[in-house]
Amino acid sequence: MREVAIIGIGQTPVQEHWPISLRHLALEASLNALQDANIERVDAVYVGNMMSGEITGQEHLGALLADSLGQAGAEAMKVEAACASGAAAFRVGMMAVASGMNDLVLVTGVEKMTDTSGRETTAALAMAADAEYEVAQGVSFVSLNALLMRRYMYEYGWERQDFANFVVTAHANGMNNPNAMFHMKVTPEQYTRCATIADPVGLLDASPVCDGAAAVILAPAEYARTLSPAPIRVRGSGIATAPIAAPTRC
Questions:
Q1: Based on the structure, what is the number of domains in the chain?
Q2: Using the 8-state DSSP alphabet, how is residue 133 labeled?
């Protein structure tokens, strides 16, 4: 197996992109990655996405993006693994390069969530749960996470305010990222006072509904330096699954 390196990256800001389609979000990030890597052609295109069919009515994202990029003829496919779809697509691309099947690979993660109502987006997100045993009972991921958070607090003796540093740190990092959706400082006091969504999960615990895309170009590490002055070596990658239904994880 060959070692793999990242030789180019591209990102869009994460926000509510009302005038921009899913195709064009993916296209913007991908073109930026190709430009950053100073290449024009790739051997394969892997797109990580969870909800395009449900929310935008568009599937076949691999071929769609390849065609939009002028890469028609390249191997292309969509990779779906719920909220880990982007990471799963990266792993598929990494394995393609490591195995020697491909030399230059574009991996793009994209999601367009704001084209529907909050109710419809919540229903689409719930498709990652167990449809027969969980979704049929009317649960959402916020309510499932509330059950898990409550159980964690019971098992380990935590109080709700003990979770504040996760949010404080995330927002502090966001202030240093021009592509982050929120650029605001959050204090532990603001965290404890925020509105409750599903007790004990509060508004600041929940990720927002938003749109965005990111892309990387992968190449064999052995000649990455001939393509990029500062390649990033992939040190490792792993993937595993847990029981899909939340109650069976406890």
A1: 2
A2: T
